[in-house]
Amino acid sequence: MFRLSKTTDYGIVLMAQLASLPNGTPLNARELAHSSDLPIPMVSKILKALSRGGILVSQRGARGGYVLSRPPDRISVAEIIRALEGRVVDLRIAEAVSVRDALRVLTGQVFDLLTLDIEFDRMSEGVDALPEIFDTHPGLNIIVVSGKLDKAEVSERLFRFTRENVLKGKRWARHFDVLDKKDDKTEAIRRAHEFAVQQREGADRIRELFLLAESYLEKNMLDKCLEVYQKIQRLAPGELESTENISIVRGEVSAEQALEYHRKGEKVVAALLLGYYLENRLRAFTLAVLGSSYWSLLDCLKALEGAGRLGVFRKNLFNDLLKLRNVAVHHPAAITEADFATVTKKLETLEERVS
User: Global pTM?
Assistant: First the structure.
């Protein structure tokens, strides 16, 4: 797998610092080393390489130092990699100022990374049109700039659209970030660029394996499914989705694990995992009581009622948990930390003295 070297990582940090300064303000190696907390020799080496690559200009004199050779938006991460590592990373990058502009830009052309500004799109025109882009261009990595639209709502709508991909481990096949105007795009572009290079080198094989795992999952061949996810881990060290999926397939996802994601700020993923956890537990409860279960939780509830195996109290508990599951899956941003404790307590009460 392609990974940015520490030198390139530091180079991007230094470039971001220079880009944040007023036009033409020079900084020398010592000043940059102090502000970035990096060793002076390393900073000096990086600055010289970027200067040789035509990205920086060295100014002599008492107030000398290094400045960008041109505006920041005209310097790509690929150029920095080329200057510091000697590698040419041929990634196709495009920018669009609206969804309509994005559809125009993408017509007849293929890109690896798109920066999409939906500030002047109405929510219905902006976010609701994104699934078309995601479906039509499955290999495209996207940075969405929400502008005046609510960043949290944009994130929720995007994750809601891709919730099946989140649970089935397809997040690795695409990278997207949601930023607002005040967010620094430098880090997002660096992550997306590194991801796109990894994707270019290994996506075909990884995608094939995810599809193979899903086919085994559909046939209930769980051992084979686990083998494939473990192979993905060997091919893509650090790939989180296959790790999560192994836990999901083994039935090891707990409310506590989902809560950890919530506390780390991944609230939508946490809610989706909580919904999946509730589905498994409610189906397992139905199986324990009736000896059989159903795919639809509503059918489980009806069957339990029809068999006369639920009193009013337990029926209300099951119904409450079913409603929480629906909120978690369909409105994940509405799930709060208190809901995780509620799920644990109500499940324990529901499952007491199952006969």
Answer: 0.42
The parent domain of residue 17 ranges over 6-85
- Cβ–Cβ contacts within 10 Å for residue 25, how many? 12
| 206 and 175 in a common domain | no
Give the pair of three-digit tokens for residue 186.
């430098």
In-domain check, residue 49:
yes
Residues 188 and 204 in one domain: no
Are 111 and 156 contained in the same domain? yes
Residue 221, in any domain of the structure: yes
237 and 299 co-located in one domain = no
Q: Is 174 found in the same domain as 127?
A: yes
- Quick: pLDDT tens for 95-136: 787 777 888 888 877 777 777 777 655 555 666 666 677 667
Q: Assign residue 14 the CATH number of its domain.
A: 1.10.10.10
- Counting the structural domains of the chain, the total is 4
Q: What is the DSSP string of 50-91?
A: HHHTTSEEEE-STT-EEEESS-GGG--HHHHHHHHH------
Which residues 6+ apart lie within 8 Å of 189 measured at CB? Answer: 77, 113, 115, 143
**CA distance linking residue 129 with residue 243, whole number of Å:** 31
Residue keyed to tokens 């084979």:
224
Q: Give 78-82 contacts, CB < 8 A, sequence gap 24+.
A: 78/193, 79/53, 79/55, 80/8, 80/11, 80/12, 80/15, 80/50, 80/53, 80/55, 81/4, 81/8, 82/53
Each residue of 168-223: pLDDT tens digit? 444 445 566 777 767 766 667 766 766 666 655 555 566 677 777 767 755 656 67
- Band (pLDDT 50/70/90 cuts) for residue 244 is low
d(CA 303, CA 195): 47
* Burial tier of 39 (Cβ tally within 10 Å: 0-12, 13-18, 19+): exposed
CB 127 within 8 A of CB 151: no
* 3-class DSSP assignment, residue 144: strand
